[in-house]
Every structure is written in structure tokens, then in C-alpha cells.
Amino acid sequence: MTVIAFPGRRNSGWRPAELNEVVASVAGRLAGGDAGGWDIGVTERGDPQFYLLGPPPHHECILCISRLGSVYVLENGKGQVLFEHGSLLALADAVKRVLRNKKADIVARATLAWFVIREAFVEKVEAMLGESEELLVHLAPQLAALA
Amino acid sequence: MEREQAGFTMRPRTQFARAAPEAKVRRRQAGTWLKQLRARAGLSQIELAQRLGLKYYTFISQVENGFGRVPTESMEAWARALGAKPSSFARQLLSYYDPELHRLLFEVKQ
To answer: Domains in chain B, start-ordered, CATH in brackets?
Structure first.
């Protein structure tokens, strides 16, 4: 496999305008506390990277944006490429979309977990109620005879 | 500084710096160790990405800078690409990524 390195124009870090755009695209997550912060770095070749970090205590990278030549690459924390494009606005939209999907995914998982717990609880309670009902059916005639 | 020129920067950056989580320090140590292994293997980040079959080399940088982890499912491939024994490679990474589990598995004396 050929790794795309984008030779030519050397990067010298993020430009303030593009960094503002990138930070604005994740601002909702930061304000909501779903992300614990962000940081920047560079690759060995000097290509700038932006890292959106998860909540404490691990602060692990959840999204990484890199600029390689004139292309922005969006990856998740496991190195999967989610989006690649030359337009900063398209990148910002993609970041928002990915974060929205992540949130929807979390809500869906939480809802599923709630239903599973509820179902298990109902099953257990029903079993307990069934047992006591059975016990009552057995004991009632005996109690009646004693009385 | 470009961080200060960006309008939104101060609050999250300051919060993050204050937290200084241990996990991040350990990930950074893991990144430094991986960088040394790569240098010893005579590979650039691009060449390592090539060996791992990645489209871009940016994930290598993410991990070496201490922001990401080597995923468990690709530890063996990383080890082989860097000329390391997979079991010792995974064990060393575990000591950075999950020191408590590493201690329980390898350090606790009976």
C-alpha cells in the first residue's frame, strides 16, 4: 500500500483562521463536557495535527485532524480515516457530523442498556411474584383447614 | 503562539493543563518508546505506515505524540513492523497503557 505523503509545500503549523474554524467545529462537545480538551502537535514531517481529547481521566484522542499539503484528513482515535478533503468548511461540517453521530450512538447504546436492565428486572420480579403466588396456592388450603 | 491566536483556546487548554492526567503522561512515554523503536528499525513514520498498510502516516504521529494508543488488534503488526517480539512489545505497551493490569499480571509476587 502506498502511504500518501503530499510532497511539496511544507507546513508550518496551523494558521489562526483554520485553527479557529476547527475549534469552532468541536466547541459544542467541549462546552457539553463530552470532550475534555484539545491539543495540537506536528508529525515528523512538520504537518500540523489537531487532537480532540476525550473526557477525564484518560483524555484520549477521539478525533485527529491533520493537514497534509492542501488536504485535511480526519481520523478517529484508532487511526481510521473518516474524511479527507481540501476544503476547511467541508472538514468542519464532517467533524460536526461525526460528533453528532457519536452522540447519537452513545444515546442509542444507553437506551439499549436501559431496556436490557429493565427487562431483566421485570423478569426477575415476575419470577419472584410467580413463586410467592404458587406458595400461597399451596398454603392457603392448609391455613384454611387449621382455621 | 498559534494556540493563543485562536479565539476558543484558553479555557479548554487551561483545563487540560491543570488536569495533567497520569494516563496522558504514560501515553507520552509509550510514544517516546515507540519512536525509539522506530528509529532503531531505521524507519520513517511514512515507512512504518506503509508496513502497517495505512493510507496516511498521521496515526503514527498521533500515537508517538502520546495522544493515541496502538490498538490491541494491531499490536502484533506494529511489533513485526518494528522488528520486535510481539509478546514483549505488547507487555511493554501494557505497562504504559494499563500499569495496574501489568502489575497484576507480571509483577505481583506470590
So the answer is: 22-107 (1.10.260.40)
Facing residue for B53 by CB, picked from A1, A47, A66: A1
Contact A49 B58 (CB under 8 A): yes
Q: In terms of CA atoms, which chain A residue is nearest residue B74?
A: A78
ipTM: 0.78
Could you tell me the three cell numbers for B62?
498521533
How do the pLDDT tens digits run along chain A, 147 residues long? Answer: 666 665 544 556 899 999 999 999 999 888 888 888 999 999 999 999 999 999 888 889 999 999 999 999 999 999 999 999 999 999 999 999 998 876 666 666 666 677 677 777 778 877 777 777 787 787 888 878 877
Helix H segments across chain B? 2-5, 10-19, 22-40, 45-52, 58-64, 75-81, 86-97, 99-102
